[in-house]
Amino acid sequence: MQRMKQGSAMIQVHDLHKHFGGFRAVDGASLTIEKGSITGLIGPNGAGKSTLFNVIAGVLKPTSGHVTMAGEDITGLPPHELFHKGLLRTFQLAHEFSSMTVRENLMMVPGAQCGETLVNTWFRRGRIREEERALRKKADEVLEFLTISHVADEKAGNLSGGQKKLLELGRTMMVDARIVFLDEVGAGVNRTLLGTIGDAIVRLNKERGYTFCVIEHDMDFIGRLCDPVIVMAAGKVLAQGSADSIMKNEAVIEAYLGTGLKNKVAAEVAEEAAFGESHGAQPGLGAEAGRGGDGKPAGDM
């Protein structure tokens, strides 16, 4: 599946730190997210992935370091300013307005709407109605793109987990998003809807030029969508490369499993040997292992 051609850096993170007292959640991370890419960000629990997202997206202030977006320093800017620059971030738990319909959730996303000022509600009702018609049309186009038009009039709180994730993705389509940070988009989502979400991400990247950075633990999903993949561990960037190369990287295996590949193999061999000895066998004796001289299993009476 061909994706949008990558270009210059959309996001650059340089020597970023975020400390909570003595705990270094992000500890000198540096990385680049190329324009037009779908970049994966993986790592074990506690690696600092979500904290990094929150610092880039302005939810948290960095302890030190710098973040630039298309060459502009955005370090420490609040989320609403970054929103207007086209930087959006979704969360592991969807944040919908549960008592509003799905369509209404989408229509309220764009800022500076005419109906938000008291004067306009008195004197510019025609303009407000015209704007609402345009927003409704755009919302319906988004719902059709995401294949969830059938729930347009459903209360958002009644949606499934996967549908709520699609709704969050739809919100990014109601404004001119340049880069979207997706935090565990697959959490609580069934395989069918996860495939739909993946299709939508690829289409937004290819057809509309969105740049994505995706936190996800499902390596099949990461492997299908993301290139490159960045690995974090203990608040630092540990490795970067294709999904295949990352899954073979010994440092990555050690970060996830707590032991290197060689040690893992050695542990498995030792375990097999211990099992064989406990059953009267010697390692490597094949089909005859564990049998006594009369051909019966050792220990049989």
UniProtKB/TrEMBL annotation:
<dbReference type="InterPro" id="IPR003593">
    <property type="entry name" value="AAA+_ATPase"/>
</dbReference>
<feature type="region of interest" description="Disordered">
    <location>
        <begin position="277"/>
        <end position="301"/>
    </location>
</feature>
<dbReference type="GO" id="GO:0016887">
    <property type="term" value="F:ATP hydrolysis activity"/>
</dbReference>
<dbReference type="GO" id="GO:0005524">
    <property type="term" value="F:ATP binding"/>
</dbReference>
<dbReference type="InterPro" id="IPR003439">
    <property type="entry name" value="ABC_transporter-like_ATP-bd"/>
</dbReference>
<dbReference type="InterPro" id="IPR051120">
    <property type="entry name" value="ABC_AA/LPS_Transport"/>
</dbReference>
<keyword id="KW-0813">Transport</keyword>
<dbReference type="Pfam" id="PF00005">
    <property type="entry name" value="ABC_tran"/>
</dbReference>
<feature type="compositionally biased region" description="Basic and acidic residues">
    <location>
        <begin position="291"/>
        <end position="301"/>
    </location>
</feature>
<dbReference type="InterPro" id="IPR027417">
    <property type="entry name" value="P-loop_NTPase"/>
</dbReference>
<feature type="domain" description="ABC transporter">
    <location>
        <begin position="11"/>
        <end position="259"/>
    </location>
</feature>
<protein>
    <submittedName>
        <fullName>Amino acid/amide ABC transporter ATP-binding protein 1, HAAT family</fullName>
    </submittedName>
</protein>
<dbReference type="InterPro" id="IPR032823">
    <property type="entry name" value="BCA_ABC_TP_C"/>
</dbReference>
<dbReference type="GO" id="GO:0005886">
    <property type="term" value="C:plasma membrane"/>
</dbReference>
<keyword id="KW-0067">ATP-binding</keyword>
<dbReference type="Pfam" id="PF12399">
    <property type="entry name" value="BCA_ABC_TP_C"/>
</dbReference>
<dbReference type="InterPro" id="IPR017871">
    <property type="entry name" value="ABC_transporter-like_CS"/>
</dbReference>
<keyword id="KW-0547">Nucleotide-binding</keyword>
